[in-house]
């Protein structure tokens, strides 16, 4: 049986940090075992990784995923996600430099931290009214991302990146507000109750990170 938690809000960020760590372990695994030649196809792979992440984000928002499952599944998913994003991150590291990629990662952490603090300072459920708008925006983003496969214009990619950053920033406000409401209702008992919340916030984080990198890459090139 999972242990009960004294501070679920702090615990969700602990598990999120572990999830991001598993992502980078997956990235290191990809570096070690995936042929470097695949990196050359990273820009093509990127669009499909983003589409996959968007579909998963939509599924989780529409309750297509269980509300409670083992946290170990989250770690397995983020590890696999790290492997899948290895060619993309490696391309960004080569084109932009490791320093810019690291600065972007730190910037994403700062965005997550600030928005989480803002949402947590409001009463439980304060930003839940954004739910439908964000969901419809996310579906629209997915549609236009698929269309962008056939219309490969720099301006299109820049607009999609900015839209993605805005939408998933809104989802951070929403997800923290939802978590706070679930805590206030007494629905968070152990770490498995946090699993879907950790996954959602992870998806917010990684989509903002990839969109920021793509925006910087498009502006540079």
TrEMBL record:
Claim: Transmembrane helix is one of the keywords in the record: yes
Query: Pfam families attached here?
Result: Bax1-I
Keyword Oxidoreductase included in the entry's annotation: no
Say where the protein is mainly found: membrane
Bilayer-spanning residue ranges: 12-34, 40-60, 72-93, 99-118, 130-151, 157-176, 197-217
Q: Which UniProt keywords apply?
A: Membrane, Transmembrane, Transmembrane helix
What topology does the record note for this protein and the membrane? Multi-pass membrane protein
Where is this gene product found? Membrane
Family that this chain belongs to:
Belongs to the BI1 family.
Q: Specify the protein name.
A: Bax inhibitor-1 family protein
Species this chain originates from: Romboutsia sedimentorum
């Amino acid at each position: 049986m999972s242990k009960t938690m004294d501070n679920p809000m702090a615990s969700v960020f602990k598990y999120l940090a572990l999830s991001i760590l598993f992502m980078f372990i997956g990235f290191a695994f990809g570096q070690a075992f995936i042929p470097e030649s695949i990196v050359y196809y990273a820009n093509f792979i990127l669009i499909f990784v983003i589409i996959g992440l968007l579909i998963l984000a939509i599924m989780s928002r529409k309750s297509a995923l269980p509300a409670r499952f083992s946290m170990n599944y989250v770690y397995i998913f983020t590890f696999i996600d790290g492997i899948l994003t290895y060619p993309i991150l490696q391309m960004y590291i080569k084109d932009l430099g490791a320093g810019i990629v690291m600065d972007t990662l730190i910037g994403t952490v700062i965005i997550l931290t600030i928005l989480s603090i803002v949402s947590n300072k409001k009463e439980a459920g304060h930003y839940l009214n954004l739910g439908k708008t964000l969901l419809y925006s996310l579906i629209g983003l997915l549609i236009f991302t698929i269309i962008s496969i056939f219309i490969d214009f720099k301006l299109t990619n820049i607009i999609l990146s900015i839209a993605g950053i805005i939408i998933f920033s809104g989802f951070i406000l929403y997800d923290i507000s939802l978590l706070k409401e679930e805590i206030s209702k007494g629905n968070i008992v152990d770490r498995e109750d946090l699993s879907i919340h950790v996954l959602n916030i992870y998806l917010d984080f990684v989509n903002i990170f990839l969109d920021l990198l793509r925006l910087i890459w498009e502006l540079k090139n």
